[in-house]
Amino acid sequence: MTPVLAGPRAGAAALSGILAIDKPAGMTSFDAVRLVRRIFNEKRVGHAGTLDPTATGLLPVCIGQATRLVDYFHQQNKTYRCTIRLGERSDTLDKEGEITTGADASAVTEADVRAAAALFVGEIEQVPPMHSAVRHEGRHLYELARSGQEVERKARIARIDSIEVTAFRPGVCAEADVIVVSGKGTYMRVLAADIGDRLGTGALLAWLSRTAYGPLRLEDAVTPEALAEYPDPATALLPLDSAVMFLPRVDLAPQNATMVGRGQSVWLPRVPDLTAGNQCRVHSADGRLIAIGEIAGNLLRPTKVLNN
Questions:
Q1: Which residues pair with 81 in a beta bridge?
Q2: What is the Cα–Cα distance from 172 to 15, expressed in whole angstroms?
Q3: Phi and psi of 20, rounded to 5°?
Q4: Per-residue confidence band for 13, with pLDDT thresholds at 50, 70 and 90
Q5: Are strands 17-23 and 56-63 parallel, antiparallel or unpaired?
Q6: In the beta sheet, which residues pair with residue 300?
C-alpha cells in the first residue's frame, strides 16, 4: 500500500541522486515515481525500467540531474528471480489475466526445464505482450488490450545471459524457480510462456522479483514505507555515478573540469582502458560526476554535461 504523506518537505532544496526502491506488489512503477516527487518536492523524477504492478523488487528512481542518466541504466544487466508455472496459460502471461488450463505437466522433469531454458540463453526474439507499455500507433498496447483489441506486434531482439533453475516442484501444474540475468527489453512473462510452449505444456509467470540492476542490489534498497519515515530522505540518495559505474572513469584537474563543464573538449595525457566503446564518465578533482564523454585518441569530448 502506498504510504500517506502530509506533503512535500517545506523549503526543500533541489537534489540530484538515485534511489534504489524496493517496490512492493500492488504498486505501479509510476506510483513509486509519484511518491518520490512528493517526498522530495521535485518534478524531475523518473524510473529506469518498469516493473509490473504484481512484481516486486529493485526499481531505480532518478531524481534531478540523474534523470538524464536513465538511458545508461538501460545499457546494464538486470537479475530476476522468477517462478514459472507449467500447465497453465494466461492472456497476460501472468497470474493477473484470464488463466486457462494448459497440458498436463506431470511428465516434465527438472532436467527437461533446464534443457528448455538453455535454448533461450543468448540473443533471442521476443514478441512484446499485448499487456505491455510498448506503443502502437501512439497508444500503449495495454490500453488496446483493455479495450479488447489485439494487434500484430513485431518480434524484438532480446538478450539473456543466463538462466539458472534453482528449484522444481513436479505436478500437473509444475513450478520451476529460476534466476535470470538479462539485458534491455527482455520480458520475463514472454520467457516463461515461451519455455512452456517449448515443453508443450504452456506456462505463465507466477512470481517475479528484480534483485539487481547494474551495480544496485535489492538488499541495499529502501521500501517506500521506510523512505516516507526518514527524517531526511536525502540520506537515502545514491550518487549520480551509480548509473554509470560500468563506464571507465576519467578524473580531471580543475582547469580541464571547468572546460568540460562548459561543453569544451580537453586533451588527456593518459587515456583509460575503454571497456564500453569510446564512452567514459568524467569526474572533477573533488570526485563529482560532471559529464559523460567520448574519447577519440587523446581527445575527450563531453557529450552530456551535468550541472550538479
A1: 179, 209
A2: 53
A3: -95, 100
A4: very low
A5: antiparallel
A6: 266, 295
pTM, 2 dp: 0.87
Amino acid at site 156: R
Q: What is the pLDDT of residues 75-124, one digit of tens each?
A: 999 999 999 999 999 988 999 888 999 999 999 999 999 999 999 999 99
User: Helix (H, G, I), strand (E, B), or coil: what is residue 228?
Assistant: helix
- Identify which has the larger pLDDT, 137 or 260: 260
Rounded CA-CA distance 160/11 in Å is 45
- Sequence-ordered list of residues with C-beta below 8 angstroms from that of 91, at least 6 positions apart, any chain: 97, 98, 130, 131
The string of DSSP codes covering 59-84 is EEEEEGGGGGGHHHHHTS-EEEEEEE
Burial 187-214 (b: 16+ CB within 10 A, else e): bbbbbbbbbbebbebbbbbbbbbbbbbb
Query: What residue ranges define each of the domains in the chain, with the CATH number in brackets?
Result: 17-74+215-240 (3.30.2350.10), 78-213 (3.30.2350.10), 247-305 (2.30.130.10)
Cα separation of 257 and 300, whole Å?
11
SS3 of residue 23 by DSSP: strand
- Position 142 pLDDT exceeds 60: no
The span from the CA of 169 to the CA of 87, in Å, is 12
Return mean pLDDT, the chain.
88
Residue of 22, 31, 52, 232 marked catalytic: 52
Instruction: Tell me the pLDDT tens digit for each residue of 237-252.
Output: 999 999 999 999 999 9
Work out the average pLDDT over 217-235: 95
Helix H or strand E segment including 37: helix 29-40
Give yes or no: 251 in active site.
no
